[in-house]
Structures
1.
Amino acid sequence: MKIEELILFTQNLKAQIDFYSKVLEFEMIDCNESSCSFNTGSSMLTFKVKEDSKPYHFAFNIPSNKEKEALHWLKERVTLIPFEEDEIIDFESWNAKALYFYDSDMNIVEFIARKSLNINSSNAFSFKSILNISEMALASTNIKETVAVLNSIKPIKKYSGDYNRFCALGDEEGLFILANPLLKKWFPTDDEIEVSDFIIKGDFNFEFKNGKFIELT
């Protein structure tokens, strides 16, 4: 699943611009008083102003061989979120290694190196190493129903999980992470999972608003 653009909402656009442009050094594409977009490999990350925005959990793919370099690069810029003292977290069943940190909105941001993609790089790690936006997480108290809705928009396969607590849909290039806030909290922070509005464009084109899917035309 390809994610061409992910549009998230923020109550403090300036702080997010400063974080992504100055801390992570992402390239700004277009900015104004109400929104700002960043180049993230083959995807684009956009923030728009909204007074009642809530925290997100999303991920970027990085080259399959760059988790250790990404660790050192990130530690110069952010405070990593470890799990059981490990800053590089091994997802053996997904054949991937991931690193987590907060942005200025306390969104949980993930860099993940998926070994099965076998996309390696010989270049030193930098913001230019980001391959694409690879995961967008959303809350659902009825995962089976949410899966059905997404499949009514466009067929999508289950990648991992179940229809009760946690389910990943899509493939290693792009995944929807469905999590039941009644049964689970966000990994690895144990933050509460909230229903957060967003807009996605690419293989799927819809607005997720107040827990409902609105297809874009």
2.
Amino acid sequence: MIKTQGRRGEVAVELHTNVPDRFRQGMRLWALVKNGERRELTIEDLWPHKSFLILKFAGVETISDAEMLKGAELQVPRGERAELEPGSTYLSDLAGCTVFDGEREIGKIVDVAFGAGEAPLLVVNGGAKLPYEIPFAEAYLEKVDVERKQVRMRLPDGLLDVNAPITREKKERGS
């Protein structure tokens, strides 16, 4: 959820779905709040506004109530997921998958982040101090096998160095 909207507890939501009209009044969702808490919500009302979907949840009546949801990730219960076309994957199913660059194992996906460009970022714990952030872009993707918990990619040279800690030599040079 991006921001509060209005004075009665509404929130503006950025959709990351190929099935935007799947939301409906009475639908039950889970909000994964920034502190890691999960909260069950029921859609009371909804309408499009600019590039967002505005949601009004039962029991969320004020701007203060809505502020608590700001930054939360909405999740649809597995039983209510839409059927996907062959070759499509729910991004939430990627958590726990191991990423490979060719035959080289990079690490496990711990999260999927949005907002840094057109492609979502796979947050991959590869043993480095900082996790790798790898664009989940079709140009890099070879194969996703959720059953085997594997994501096979062909990454451009240097991509994994973008998150690498700065070496002492680079600090001294100021680059």
